[in-house]
Amino acid sequence: MTDASRISSANLIENRALDRAELETLSKNGSAHRLVGCVLEEADLSRLSLDGWVFEDCNVKQANFIGAKLGSSVWLSCKGGLADFTGCDLSESRIEGCDFNNSSFRGTTLTGSLFERCKLTGANLSEAKTLNLSFAETRLADARLPGLSFRKARLNGLDLQMADLRKCDFRDAVFQDCSLRDANLVDCRFEGADLRGADLGGIRLLNAKQFKGATISRDQAGQLLAELGLKVR
Questions:
Q1: Whole-structure pTM value
Q2: Which of 155, 164, 124, 153 is CA-nearest to residue 137?
Q3: Which of 55, 77, 93, 100 is most open to solvent, judged by the fewest CB atoms within 10 Å of its CB?
Q4: How far is it, in rounded angstroms, from Cα 56 to Cα 232?
Q5: Residues 99/118, Cβ–Cβ less than 8 Å
Q6: 5 φ, ψ to 5°?
Q7: Checking DSSP bridges between strand 154-156 and strand 174-176, what pairing results, if any?
Q8: CA distance 182 to 164
């Protein structure tokens, strides 16, 4: 994975507003660049080759990255609400402390990527390629994540309340300080999962079989039974 410190000072660009023409010219020299404090808001960067680039404290709100090559890129403290990464390659990328609320990652290649301490409220990850994708301390409330596999993952600090988690695989996953409150869990699998560290508020046991073999606390059991209208004494 690209380390920002490995990019030479000659390829450092700071505090500038950049457009497509400038980035296209920079990309043609074949070297990765580090952008710090740059403004790319609403820029059309679709299908550019930016593998290994570093974006630090940049404004990429509503930027168009459709089909771009961003493999092994690094994103640090960027603001990117409503950015569009549809169909781009973000494999082996590291995204830390970024705000990508309501952004689209539909069909994006996220193989081996990491989101840490990010805001992804309302983000769309439908049809994304997610082998070995990791999340940590990330807000995914109201996000669309249908069919993602979290099997055997250790999920720490994930806010998945009201998220679309249909057909997600949580088998043998361990939840710690997470929220599944009011999430759509239709056809999810939880066999062997440890749910004791998850907020299960609002979940209705429409299909109890999907939780067969999962571990929950006594308090959670009472909460789930209460959702069925049963009183626990």
A1: 0.91
A2: 155
A3: 77
A4: 52
A5: yes
A6: -70, -15
A7: parallel
A8: 10
**Cα separation of 175 and 28, whole Å?**
44
Range list of H helices, 85-200:
none
Q: pLDDT per residue over 135-173, tens digit each? A: 999 999 999 999 999 999 999 999 999 999 999 999 999
CA distance 66 to 87: 6
| Band (2; pLDDT cuts 50, 70, 90) | very low
209 in helix, strand or coil? helix
- What is the residue type of 76? L
- 17 and 38 Cβ atoms separated by less than 8 Å: yes
Q: What is the phi/psi pair of residue 9, to 5°?
A: -60, -25
* Residue range 214-229, pLDDT digits in tens: 999 988 888 777 776 6
Q: Which long-range contacts (CB under 8 A, 24 or more apart) does 226-229 make?
A: 227/202, 227/203, 228/204
Return the SS3 of 68. coil
Enter the tokens of residue 174.
Answer: 């361990």
DSSP 99: B
SS3 of residue 179 by DSSP: strand
